[in-house]
Amino acid sequence: MAEKETLEKLTGLGKTMVEQVDKGKSPTFEASLRSKGNIEFDKSVGFLRLGDKKEERTFLNVSQARTFMQTVAVANKAKKFLAEDLHTSIRGLYYQLKFSLGEDIDESLFEEQSESNALVEDLEVALSVKREDLHLTTDRKGVVAGNMIVKDNFAGEQTEIDCAQQGRSGWMIPSDVDNGMEFVDIKAKYVLVVEKDALWQRLNEDRFWKKDNCILITPKGQASRGTRRLIRRLADKGLPVYVFTDCDAWGWYIYWTIKTGSMNLAYLGRDFSIPEAKFLGVTMSDIEKFPFLKKLTIKAKEIDIKRAEEMISYPWINMHPEWVSELNKVLKTGQKIEQDALQGERLTFVGEYIRQKIKNKEWLP
Amino acid sequence: MAEKETLEKLTGLGKTMVEQVDKGKSPTFEASLRSKGNIEFDKSVGFLRLGDKKEERTFLNVSQARTFMQTVAVANKAKKFLAEDLHTSIRGLYYQLKFSLGEDIDESLFEEQSESNALVEDLEVALSVKREDLHLTTDRKGVVAGNMIVKDNFAGEQTEIDCAQQGRSGWMIPSDVDNGMEFVDIKAKYVLVVEKDALWQRLNEDRFWKKDNCILITPKGQASRGTRRLIRRLADKGLPVYVFTDCDAWGWYIYWTIKTGSMNLAYLGRDFSIPEAKFLGVTMSDIEKFPFLKKLTIKAKEIDIKRAEEMISYPWINMHPEWVSELNKVLKTGQKIEQDALQGERLTFVGEYIRQKIKNKEWLP
C-alpha cells in the first residue's frame, strides 16, 4: 500500500517538475527545513518534530544546481527500485548513481556512517515517506523474541515466524517492518526493551519473556530504524513499552531517542518515536531499594556528567521532576550504575528487578 | 559434554592448588604464553597458534599475587555458573566478583571493548576450554539463513529453528553454538559468508541461498566468536566455505581472521579458524572480467595501503602468489572496490557474480 502511494508521489514529483520546465520555470521542490531552528518538541504529542519552516530547492541556483540534480537522480532510482520490486542500501544506491552519473555524484553524501545521507532525507521529507518505502534498506541490529507471530510477505513467499520458537537466540529485526509484514497472534502483554545484548541473553535464558508474557527486544545499543518501527507498531497495538538501560549518558540517550526521537531524526516524527515509553531503570534511586547495588556503582565519566547537565536543560526532560531528581543524583555523587550490576548478587535478579518495577509502577516517565 | 569436562577441569585446577598449599608450596598454574614471541603460523594446519612457551603464574610473587588471586576468583565463579547452569557475560562476571571482592577486582581487565579480558583468557588457555564452556556469553552480531535446521536444547526446552523459514530476515547467530546445539538436515551445499549486512539483505531478497542451495551468513563486519564457531562447525560437516568481502583493509582482515585466526586470538587455535575458507572477492582483478566495475572503484585510504603492505610481509599471506599479485594491484593503482559496487549496473548482479566465481573456481586461497 505504502509502496503504491510512494510510487505515485515520486511520479507526481517528476510531473510537477516537467510542468515547471514546460512553463519555462526552474524546476523546484519544497521540503521542511531540517536545521536546528526548525526542530521543536511538541508537548501535545510528546516527540521532537519539524516546525513549519520550509525550504525550496531549485535547479536554477548556482549553489543548489548540483544537489538538485542529484536529488532528482535519487528520486529516479527509487522509482526504478519500486518498479523492479527490488531493494538496496544507500550505498548500493550510490553505486547505481555513480554508474549512471560518473563523477557527478558526491560520495560524501552517501557515507555509510553518516546520519545525514542528505539527498535521501530531502526526499523523505518532501514526499512524507520513509526511506524504507523508497526500497532502501538500512542496517539491522536489534533482536526479538516473545509471544507473537510475524506474518511476512517477502520476495514472493509467505512465511510465519514464531518469535516464541527462537531457542537460545532470536529473530533479527529486519530493516523494514512495515511493507508486507504483520504482527499477529500477539499474546504478550507488554514490550521490554533491554539496552544490552548480554542482558537480553540473561533474560532469555531465564525464559523471562515466557514467564512474564512479554516481547523481549534488544536494540544492542542505539536502536536501528527497524527496531524503532517495530516498537512503534507494537505500541500502536496497545502494548505498554518499558525500556531498561544503563544509568549513564549512553543509556539515557537510547531511552530518549526511542521515546521522543532525536534532533538528527526529528524529521521522522511520530513514525520513529514512542512517547508512551516508560523508563524502568537502572536509576541511582535503585540503590535505596536494593542496597547491594551501593558497592556496584562505578565512577561516572566526563561524558556522563556533561550529558546529565545537558539533559536537565532540555524542556522535554526537565518538565519531568523525576528525571531532574535522578540526573541530579548522578551529578551530586559522580557515580553511575550499569544494568549488568544487577547480576552482582545473583544472576537471576535481573528478572526479579524488572518484575518488581513494573508491578509497583516504579518507572520514570 | 564439554560442560561436564570443563567442570572437572576447574575442580582439578582448584585441587592442585590446595595440594600445593598443603605441601607448603606456593599455589601455581601454568598457561601457554600469549605474547607475540610465542605466536606462530603453523603451515601444516593453516592457522595461527601459540607455540610451546609456557608461563607460570604463582601466588607468592609480588607482581603476580593480585592477578593470581583474581584468576582463582574467576575460576571459582565459572564453576558456580556451571553448577547453577546459568550464563552471564564477562561484564556480569565482573560485577559478581566486585560484589564478592569489592575494590580488589580490577575493572580494566573486564572492559567490554577490550579484546583481552586477560583473566578469562588465562583460564581458557590453562584449561584448554572456550569461554563459552565456562558459561560466559559474548555479544551476538551475525545472522544466518539457509537450508538447515538448528536443534537447540536450551534452558530446559527443545526448539527446532528452520533457517529456511526466516522471511526477510534471519536467525541471529547465538553466542554459543556448541553446547546443546546441533545442525541437522543440512541440505545446503556450501557456506557463503558476506561481509556486509546490506549485501546479505540483497542476496536474501533474491532468494540466493534457496536458488543456489547455500547457507547465507553475514558476520556484519568482523565475525563474532559465535559466527566463527558456526562457520567452523559447518566446515567440519564438509561444507566448502566462501567468503565475500570488500577489496580493502577491513575486508581482507575479516577474511584472514576467519581463515587463519588473528594474532590477538591465536590462543584459540583451530576452534576459531577455518583454513579451508576461500576468498571469492571482490578483487581488483574483477575489473578485467567485469569492465563496468572500472568506473566504480574508489580511492584507497591510507589504512588500506598500509594494510596491503603489511599483509604482503606476512608469511601466511605471501606464500600465496595470487594474494601478492592482488595486493600489489591495490598498491599500484591506489584504488579499492567495495562489494556494494557490484550493484552499480543492476542490483541482481551480486548473485550472478558469486555464481560465476564459484562455478569457474575463481577464488583466492
Describe this entry's structure for a reader:
The structure is a homodimer of 365-residue chains. Chain A has 365 residues and is α/β, with parallel strands linked by helices. Chain A has two domains: 136 residues, Winged helix-like DNA-binding domain superfamily/Winged helix DNA-binding domain (Arc Repressor Mutant, subunit A); 217 residues, Dna Topoisomerase Vi A Subunit, Chain: A, domain 2 (3-Layer(aba) Sandwich), CATH 3.40.1360. In chain A, 39% of the residues lie in helices and 18% in strands. Chain A is built from 13 helices and 17 strands. Chain A has a six-stranded mixed beta sheet with strand order 10-7-13-12-14-15, sandwiched between helices. The two termini of chain A are 35 Å apart.
Task: Write the topology of this structure.
2 copies of one chain form a homodimer.
Chain A: H1 2-22, E1 28-32, E2 39-42, E3 47-50, E4 54-58, H2 65-84, E5 88-89, H3 90-101, H4 118-127, E6 136-137, E7 143-146, E8 149-154, E9 157-162, E10 171-172, E11 181-184, E12 190-194, H5 197-205, H6 208-211, E13 214-218, H7 225-236, E14 241-244, H8 249-260, E15 278-281, H9 286-289, E16 298-299, H10 302-313, H11 315-318, H12 321-333, E17 335-336, H13 349-359
Helix pairs in contact in A: 1-2, 2-4, 10-12
